[in-house]
Specification:
The protein has 216 residues and is α/β, with parallel strands linked by helices. The chain has one domain (5-213): TIM Barrel. It is built from 8 helices and 8 strands; from the N terminus they run E-H-E-H-E-H-E-H-E-E-H-E-H-E-H-H. Helix 2 runs parallel beside helix 3.
Length: 216
């Protein structure tokens, strides 16, 4: 059985005690930290900037999986890389030269991913798959944590898995949105490699046990 990576999303953590929550992640079975960056334009919410990422970088060596839900990633990705991002994912729906952005991010030494909203077709990103390290399938509409999993997205995960395997592409499939112990197994069976979970973990009485349940 392939190894599944858990990337807890600190969007649902307690922002007053982020260091504590990141340390909890570090002492669990998780290997990545998922950091959602929102600008109030691409999505109707605002979260954190590079300074917070830099502060967290000083307290952990976990891989920083930075998801840019912003309108102009080409203007800001470098600041997040300098702050400590290891993997930078941007949305295919943005109006920019996506292949150039991929090349620019990879030239820095960071890994790069491309994400698509629930209503965006895989065909919109298929030409980019050979060049990225990760494809992020959103199983909720991006912008806020705590939403319910959109079941129709399972077919998108399966189709993406087929494309990657048939063409021998070497990139992860990451799934984000409504991930709990039930939907985690559905996504894994559909072909996911990385699971992002926020509210399910951080609203639990025992976040560490909740995180562990995603791998059972």
């Amino acid at each position: 059985m392939k190894k599944i990576i858990i990337a807890p999303s600190i969007l649902s953590a307690n922002f007053a005690t982020l260091e504590y929550d990141v340390k909890m992640i570090e002492n669990s079975e998780a290997e990545w930290v998922h950091i959602d960056i929102m600008d109030g334009h691409f999505v109707p919410n605002i979260t954190i900037g590079p300074l917070v990422v830099k502060s967290l970088r000083n307290v952990t060596k976990l891989l920083f999986d930075v998801h840019l839900m912003i309108a102009n990633p080409e203007k800001y990705w470098l600041e997040f890389y300098k702050a400590g991002a290891d993997l930078i994912t941007f949305h295919t729906e943005v109006l920019t030269d996506k292949k150039k952005l991929i090349d620019d991010i990879k030239s820095s030494g960071a890994k790069v991913g491309v994400s698509l909203k629930p209503k965006t077709s895989i065909s919109d990103i298929e030409y980019l798959i050979p060049y990225v390290d990760l494809v992020l399938v959103m199983t909720v509409e991006p912008g806020f944590g705590g939403q319910s999993f959109i079941n129709d997205m399972v077919y998108k995960i399966k189709d993406l898995r087929k494309i990657i395997d048939e063409n021998n592409h070497s990139c992860f499939i990451e799934v984000d949105g409504g991930i709990n112990s039930q939907t985690a197994s559905i996504c894994i069976n559909a072909g996911a490699d990385v699971l992002v979970s926020g509210s399910y973990i951080f609203s639990a009485e025992s976040p560490r046990l909740a995180l562990k349940s995603l791998l059972i």
